[in-house]
Design goal:
This protein has about 270 residues and is of the alpha/beta class. It has one domain (about 10-260): Metallo-beta-lactamase, Chain A (4-Layer Sandwich). Helix content is about 25%, strand content about 25%. It has eight helices and 13 strands. The chain has helices at about 60-65, 75-80, 115-120, 130, 135-150, 200-205, 215-225, 240-245; strands at about 10-15, 35-45, 50-55, 70, 90, 110-115, 150-155, 160, 165-170, 180-185, 185-195, 235, 255-260. A hairpin with a 2-residue loop joins strand 8 (about 160) and strand 9. Zinc ion (ZN) binds near residues 99, 194 and 238.
Length: about 270
């Protein structure tokens, strides 16, 4: 423990989607109001190294799906001083289009993925439009290409990526969804990704409607809290509140980038 480095962790918004709050919960929402979501890539820096968590989608994919793309994933990472062409390790939470696109931006990277996610994205579940919808075939064939290029590091459950950085399989939203836990100056921080899209999903035990296994999704909410040093150190995957609650690294980046490792200053 004494040898474990502390890491800086950034959430960087690259896109958004205007929708109703009812769209974010199975069974809808009693308040018939707006419930927009943000799309993030996350970056971990420390000990002279960099890890990127998820690679977003590009403008063409955003247009196809009616999402507003503010910047591509490469430009998003430049905002925190990361040159995407030099990134060597990427952790992919799951293979949905909004988490594993932008293929050409990471020519040097290896990708940490869960075995079950590859199984899910290349197996019989993809014959079912209801499960296939959030996947883009090109993302998946690119992942398969990377297997043959020795650029995939498979994990089966929990695994250590580096001292103080671990991945944790939770499933639920997809068969192979994994969260990332990082040691920071404010203790253990959990990047829940789509284990919980919004704060309300995990805080209230209300599942998001895109789901492979509801029980695993609900258990994933609990697991996120168990793994974090405090409930305020669990970061949901798509909630616009994240950018309001955590401090921006520079005033001009407010509303675009926040430093998760510093803890929330507005909660
Ligand atoms: Zn997502």
């Amino acid at each position: 423990m004494a040898q474990m480095p502390t890491y800086e962790v950034y959430a960087i918004k690259y896109a958004s989607h205007v929708r109703k709050m009812a769209d974010n919960f199975i069974g809808g929402d009693p308040h018939d109001g707006p419930g927009p979501i943000d799309y993030f890539v996350w970056a971990i820096k420390g000990n002279g190294r960099v890890w990127v968590v998820d690679t977003g989608f590009d403008a063409a994919e955003g247009k196809k799906r009616g999402r507003i793309v503010d910047r591509d994933c490469g430009d998003a990472l430049k905002l925190v001083g990361i040159d995407h062409t030099q990134v060597e390790e990427v952790i992919i939470s799951h293979f949905h289009y909004d988490h594993c696109g932008s293929h050409h931006l990471f020519p040097k990277a290896k990708f940490h993925v869960q075995e079950k996610e590859m199984q899910y994205a290349t197996g019989p579940c993809m014959c079912m439009p209801a499960l296939r919808g959030p996947f883009t075939a090109k993302d998946i064939t690119t992942m398969v290409d990377r297997v043959f290029e020795d650029r995939i590091i498979f994990h089966n459950g929990d695994a250590e990526i580096a001292p103080g950085i671990t991945v944790h399989h939770v499933g639920g939203h997809t068969m192979g969804l994994q969260m990332v836990r990082v040691w920071t100056q404010t203790g253990w921080l959990v990047l829940a990704a789509d284990a919980s899209h919004m704060y309300a999903n995990m805080e209230q035990g209300r599942p998001f409607p895109i789901v492979y296994n509801v029980f695993d999704m609900l258990r994933g909410h609990q697991r996120a809290y168990e793994l974090a040093g405090s409930p305020k150190n669990v970061v949901p995957g798509h909630d616009p509140l994240v950018l309001q609650r955590y401090p921006a690294p520079k005033p001009e980046l407010k509303g675009i980038v926040c430093r998760l490792d510093l803890g929330p200053n507005n909660w």
